[in-house]
């Protein structure tokens, strides 16, 4: 399965209606109709980001040859031609909806096809989860700053910092990836439970529970990896 072109806005990965339609093997008109019919279920900022006016113009300015400029894109003539054949933003569009991971889930539920559920599951693993995420940089704390901070020991009636052996989880890239994965899958499960907690037809309910089962397996897998992970212990002032 081929990943869609990467679209990022406000620091998160999103999909255009055209990308969702192509992935779920439907049309943009169907996506728009599903959105209109279920408008009350879609929450701005949670399920979609709406661009108009200056925000939309700024977004369009980042688009070259009808595709978003992205460092992850390949710099080959073939790749440029492929991207040029699929405009992500209509030239005269006055409003643009960009769908988040949870928004893509609601569209999968609205379509309720095996293909939509399959593609959504794939997008969770390979698109919305940023690849090669780096562990957050941990600022080295100066001794003077440590001494000013609250510390757990009293010496001569005064509170002073103390060294202790602590896990290096906050600055361990492997641990940070596991934490990121777990948070991603828990967010996906939270969105699935919102949909499960609706009035669903029998066939809809079956497909939703199947996706919940797959998401549960992923959560269990990451949980087992966290249990197996052995962080190093380093001396730190706490």
A few lines on this structure:
With 238 residues, this protein is α+β, with helices and mostly antiparallel strands. The protein contains 9 helices and 10 strands.
3D architecture notes:
This protein is α+β, with helices and mostly antiparallel strands and 238 residues long. Helix content is 49%, strand content 16%. It has helices at 17-23, 28-37, 53-61, 77-84, 101-111, 114-128, 143-148, 173-196, 202-228; strands at 7-9, 12-16, 48-52, 63-64, 67-68, 95-99, 153-155, 158-160, 163-167, 233-237. The strands form four sheets. The protein has a four-stranded antiparallel sheet. The protein has a two-stranded antiparallel ribbon with strand order 4-5. The chain has a two-stranded antiparallel sheet with strand order 7-8. A hairpin with a 2-residue loop joins strand 1 (7-9) and strand 2 (12-16). Helix 5 (101-111) runs antiparallel to helix 6, helix 5 (101-111) packs parallel to helix 8 (173-196) and helix 8 runs antiparallel to helix 9. The termini are far apart.
Question: Low-confidence stretches at least 5 residues in length (pLDDT < 50)?
Answer: 64-86, 131-154
Rounded radius of gyration (Å): 23 Å
- Strand sequence of the main sheet, in spatial order? 1-2-6-3
Write down the overall geometry. globular
**Category by helix and strand content:** alpha+beta
Instruction: Give the topology string: H per helix, E per strand.
Output: EEHHEHEEHEHHHEEEHHE
SS summary, helix count: 9
Total count of strands? 10
